[in-house]
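task queued by scheduler; priority normal; single chain, no ligands, no partner chains; default sampling; output format set to structure tokens
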Amino acid sequence: MTATAISTTAATLYARILFQPATSHEIVKATGIPHSIVEECLQALSAIIEQAADGRITTRTGRRASGVLDREILDLLRTRASDDLGPWEIGNGIAATHGAARSALLRLSRDGHVIKTNDRPARYRLA
């Protein structure tokens, strides 16, 4: 089965589950989709929904959702509260580029969530 067919099947199953919850056997009977494919798609959907609820993924491109990067940075700064960290260390600590970390840190600093403790090299800690 192609990726497009699986995506289409998954979307059909998701819509069916969302608007009319059913067991996998009921879905097979109603849609004619083979049971093995229904089970595979339901497992994939379950994993995606769980990851989205945790904020780990939310877009088709795999990019972080709005606000997720900020939460990850703040969580890292909380766990290392005694350290002043730069964009490079923060980016490495949360699997993000230092440029993305830098932009988020500037925003968080502007909003009063973090304090810039040093200009060169840039260092931050929780406010």
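post-processing summary
- The mean pLDDT is 80.
- The chain has two domains: 3-53, 68-126.
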